[in-house]
UniProtKB/TrEMBL annotation:
It is found in: Cell membrane. This is Polar amino acid transport system ATP-binding protein. PROSITE patterns: ABC_TRANSPORTER_1, ABC_TRANSPORTER_2. It comes from Geodermatophilus nigrescens. Belongs to the ABC transporter superfamily. CDD domains: ABC_HisP_GlnQ (cd03262). Keywords: Amino-acid transport, ATP-binding, Cell membrane, Membrane, Nucleotide-binding, Transport. It is a peripheral membrane protein. InterPro entries: AAA+_ATPase, ABC_ATPase_HisP-typ, ABC_transporter-like_ATP-bd, ABC_transporter-like_CS, MetN_ABC_transporter-like, P-loop_NTPase. Signal peptide: none annotated. GO terms for molecular function: ABC-type amino acid transporter activity; ATP binding; ATP hydrolysis activity. Gene3D superfamilies: P-loop containing nucleotide triphosphate hydrolases.
Amino acid sequence: MTAPGSGPARPVLSVRGLRKVFGDHVALDGVDLDVHEGEVVVVLGPSGSGKSTLVRCVHQLESVDGGAAYLDGELLGYEQHRGHLRPLPEARVARQRRRMGMVFQQFNLFPHWTVLRNITEAAVKVHGQRPEEARRRAVELLERTGLADKHQAHPKQLSGGQQQRVAIARAVATDPRIMLFDEPTSALDPELVDEVLSVVRDLARTGMTMVVVTHEMDFAREVADRCVFMDRGRVVEVGTPQEVFEAPRSPRLQAFLTRFAQRQQRADAAAPAV
Ligand SMILES: Nc1ncnc2c1ncn2[C@@H]1O[C@H](COP(=O)(O)OP(=O)(O)OP(=O)(O)O)[C@@H](O)[C@H]1O
C-alpha cells in the first residue's frame, strides 16, 4: 500500500482500499477517500451502507481486513515489519488516536464529573496541557457551544443536546488534526438536533477539518464542502452538495434521494398545521 504523497497538498486523512468484514458480511468493500486541510466531508447513505464502520476503522475502534488509512501521511494502526504490515502496539495506536477527535451517537460523558472536568481531564492527563490552559480553553469552548452557565453541572442535569455539545467541546479541546462525527444527532429527540448541528456548523466555519456521518440532509447541503454517498460498503458518488443533490449520476443515489424526498413529504403531511 503506497502512502499518499507529501507536500502542501497532501490530505490530512487518506483512506485507500479500506476493507472490513464482519463474519460473512462485507461492511467496507475497498473504500477510498481523501480529506484535505479545512475540508468538511459529509458521508451519506442508507442504513447499513458502512458509514459508521468507515469512521470507526479510521479511528481504529475496529481492525481492518484490507487497505489502509493515513493521517498526515502516517499509516494508522500498522507498521512495516520485514516487508509485511503488523499491528502497532496499543500505546502507539492510542497516540495516533489522540490526534483525532471522535464524537459518537452516545455522548459517553463521565457522570460523576462536572462539565468542566469532563472537558479538561483528557486535555491535561492525556494531552499534557497545563491545567490553567486547559481550563481557559474549556471555558472558551463552553461559551462557543452555548453552555457558559453549565461549568459546574453534572451530565444528568443536562439535556441530550447539551450533553452532546459537551462531548463536542471535549473532543475539540484536545486540538485534534481532524474531527470525526459518527451520527452525532441520531440519539437525540428531534427538537434537540438543531442545537447540536449548529455547533458542528460553527466549528466547520472555523476551518476545522472534519468528516461527518449523518442522515441530516439539510445539514449536508449547507455545510459540506464535499458529500460522499456510500452504498453496500462502497463509495458510489462524491461531489459538492450541489452535484450530489441536484445532479446525482448513479441510479442508487437517485433512488436514495427519491426515498428521502418521499419520507420528507409524508412527514410534512403528517405534521400539524401551525
Ligand atoms: N460489530 C459488528 N458486528 C457485526 N456486524 C456489524 C458490526 N458493525 C456493523 N456491522 C454491520 O456492517 C454493516 C455496516 O454497518 P454501519 O453501522 O457501518 O452502517 P451505517 O451506514 O453506519 O448504518 P446506519 O446509518 O444505520 O448507522 C451493517 O450491515 C451492520 O449490520
